[in-house]
Amino acid sequence: MPRGATPPAGSPVEIPPAGVVLKIERIVQGGVGLGRSGGKALFVPYTLPGEEVSVQITRTTGDYLEGEAREILRPVPERVVPLCPLFGLCGGCQLQHAVQSAQLQYKVDALRETLLRIGKIEHPPILPAIASPDPFHYRSRVRLQVAHSQVGFYARRSHRVVPVTACPLLVPSLNRALAFVQEHLSLQPIVEIEIQGNPSEEILIILRGDDVPEDACRLFYEMSRDIRCRGVVVYTRRGRMVFGQDSVIHPVNGRVLRVSDRSFFQVNGGINRTLVETALAWVAPTPSDTLLELYSGVGNFTLPFAESARHVTAIEAHPVAVRDARWNVAKAGLKNVTFCPTSVEAGLLHILKKRQRYASVFLDPPREGVSTAALRALSDLAPARIVYLSCNPATLARDLQRLSSTGYGLHRIAPFEMFPQTAHLEVLVELRLQS
Known about the structure:
This protein is of the alpha/beta class. It has three domains: 1-79, CATH 2.40.50.140; 85-136 and 268-435, Vaccinia Virus protein VP39 (Rossmann fold), CATH 3.40.50; 141-248, CATH 2.40.50.1070. It has nine helices and 22 strands. A seven-stranded mixed beta sheet has the order 9-8-7-10-11-12-13, covered by helices on one side.
């Protein structure tokens, strides 16, 4: 069950043999439908609010129930036939059975509920959600599992691999690369395949496995040039091998970003462009401003900030991301960025000791959110504005509650549909220090 979607599990008891009929009330975090049976919350995947559903209960605890829909007795108009024949088997998508506009509304409603339940935020200032320009064929990066020489994704809540030959969420160049891999590469020693692409339809292929032979990888790289492969990177127990390049180049709003195979980058280029523009507008740097960026990555936001501000201090612990960011800043001809290649906690403590001040702070933490130590240091720094980008509403709600206790008020919240057909939502938040 997704984090924050249900109470903690109690001790399992006997599963009732018969099904129940119930009405789905809403979608919770994780894209699962919630109904009630016998006074308990019952979570049912692949259902929609307002539907009457026959459910087979599969698990019961002292706190809640889980079940599978046996039949949709009364579907709602928002239900559609999923485009992918593997929907419900593959665990990658949770909401492909709903029209795109409804998907986004369900996720915003779940965000609002999470902010209230975890963050105790009763009336969050949520702006209209920004929809992805492409509901399908938007992902420029994918990680696939290999089992018994078959390539695929994990089944829902399982490590069983569901074989795939193509995925409707992937940009066309990644699907072509996936087909090429399955046709021309021996999969026996490989356990994981990652494919990255860019708008120019160049790709990078990453292979992982204990005993992947070097000669076979070199030959595969030479063959893969036919599909515009920039490079093949291989991780084995003997170490890392690179054939060709180990990065792809992404254009973002007139800028160029190099992204290496070990660096993070947003998978939805269309919505990322809008996200960068919005973050820049909210941070609103002027030529006299000094900005602080936490978890700065490869410079997706650093570059536009530096083009407008007097100076940007960028804190990032991942050495490969820092290497990419330095290259990207130099490529842009910017000389007003200082990189701090350390943890956010250590970087903030150093800044506090030097008594440096910043009018605005931008942060884009991983799914686990911000540590208590980092939030404490950020509050001690006391910038007038904090702009927080989150990929996890549960940890966002927790962190917003902590920041509100130190004098910050919510100014605005913007949801971005970075991952159509899935339960995931990207959220941008602006907080302002209350006088």
